[in-house]
Amino acid sequence: MKTIDRYIAxxxxxxxxxxxxxxxxxxxxxxxxxxxxxxMALATKRGMTPEGDPSTARKxxxxxxxxxxxxxxxxxxxxNYMIGLIIIGAMGFTCSQLxxxxxxxxxxxxxxxxxxLMRPILLVAILxxxxxxxxxxxxxxxxxxxxxxxxxxxxxxxxxSLPVRLVPDGQRRLFYARSFExxxxxxxxxxxxxxxxxxxxxxxxxxxxxxWRDGGWDLENGxxxxxxxxxxxxxxxxxILTDLDPVALKIARFSGYSQSLSWSQISEMLRxxxxxxxxxxxxxxxxxxxxxxxxxxRDLRVAExxxxxxxxxxxMLCNILALLAVTPFFLRREPTSMILxxxxxxxxxIGGVMGGVLGASAAIPGLPPQVGVxxxxxxxxxxxxxxVTSVRT
Length: 393
What we know:
The chain is of the alpha+beta class and 393 residues long. It contains twelve helices and six strands. It has helices at 3-46, 56-100, 103-109, 114-142, 144-147, 246-253, 263-270, 287-325, 327-330, 338-361, 369-372, 375-389, and strands at residues 162-168, 174-181, 186-195, 201-213, 216-226, 235-241. The protein is flat and about 95 Å long. The chain starts with a helix and ends with a helix.
């Protein structure tokens, strides 16, 4: 890499880091100004000692720690959706610096084309996009529990116990539990209702504890009782096989948890489509209508997961294409007002990046989700080609 490439790449990378720090600091400052009392009350509660309330200095340090602990997982997730605007904004600042100091003029006068000067910027943008892909696949799934926390759960390393309210599995059994502990993969005070094809309950299985292991739940003090025959004896049940694993329970509990799944986890869910009908139809007596609704819910969930999976690729592609689409506004061989050029580029940049995000989340009628998410990228592609070829150099 030549000296000029290293120089531009360093300036561009520093601007990206600066924008990330400024944006995230701004978000935390706004939240802290609105919820400072809540964090202080939580710090007082967490810092309580046998002697009484913590000192003011200790309380302040605990508050800073709680704010940081609560926000860093959410900022990692926000990074994945804001990086498109950040890399475009950083390119604007980098090119403004180069234009203001007449460095583009000197480079062009020395026989270096503006297209050649764009190469280090594009390489750094691709590198940052690769970090985004790594975050989607490896970082976000591992901190998904932390992202779902509310402010009162700051500093906790796992989700608190969650109730399980009549979640169905692939065999149409309904699972109920007083609490579900995702970290330990166990349920407490479990009730499992087995149903006939027509809908009514045929048998109930109760247990004080259920532990997930190798495709099923190990039951502690599990007892099965028939609902169709009063004279049928009670049976002892030690294990029940099901496709309703801890991941599916967390998806049923948190509507936004599916956004935190990795490509491999989504693929695993799609290999078990019967698991995706996370809805109960107890109010529908007709079995055919009940099955039809289950299929409809399953198809909607499949389409949603496909949009999430391929939408991430589409978002990253739209970020790069939007970056290329605004290059004529910033790669200038003559000095000009970069503020005016930034104002002109803003609608295209925001539209391109937000189009990728919206295309990945909204269904397009008549198109499968694997294709629909790439519609914004297909629109941006000719614009990016036209923009790059129109740079005067």
